[in-house]
Design a protein that fits this description.
Layout (H helix, E strand, L loop, with lengths): L1 H6 L4 H15 L15 H25 L6 H24 L8 H39 L1
Helix pairs in contact: 2-3, 2-4, 3-4, 3-5, 4-5
Length: about 140
């Protein structure tokens, strides 16, 4: 996984995340016949996790761009807001399109909470681990 993270150009992971979110949000049956209802509200957990990872991916791409310098809090917050805005746009898309998907305000709340959790994780723990991983490999390549 680390090799893939290092090899991908900046922005590719974010673009793939947006495409995945759009597909899962706007497709009338994104999982085909494999839709599984684990427990009541499990779709809200899925929304939360999807936007947690989307927000984290946006921030990871930004951090890769900034290396070896540190990221800025206001820009990390902006990327969190971008993930929240994506969640809002996907819910509006479900409202406007007649594809069998419906707008749900609770889904929007789960999207925003997930994006905030992704920001919180990356800001508190993830970015320092990412910097150590990315910079350690760069220094090791320069020594040999």
């Amino acid at each position: 996984m680390k090799q893939i993270l290092k090899a991908l150009p900046v922005g590719v992971m974010s673009a793939l995340a947006v495409l995945l979110v759009a597909y899962l949000s706007l497709n009338s049956d994104p999982l085909g016949d494999h839709s599984i209802m684990l427990f009541p509200g499990s779709d809200k957990v899925a929304h939360f996790l999807l936007y947690l990872f989307t927000s984290a991916i946006f921030i990871i791409d930004y951090a890769k761009y900034k290396l070896p310098h540190h990221t800025k809090l206001n820009l990390e917050l902006m990327f969190m807001c971008c993930a929240m805005l994506l969640g809002l746009l996907m819910e509006i898309g479900q409202l406007v399109l007649s594809n069998g998907r419906t707008y749900d305000a609770v889904d929007l709340v789960a999207n925003c909470l997930g994006a905030a959790a992704g920001f919180g994780y990356m800001h508190q723990w993830g970015l320092s681990r990412l910097r150590r991983t990315m910079l350690h490999s760069r220094h090791r390549h320069h020594r040999h």
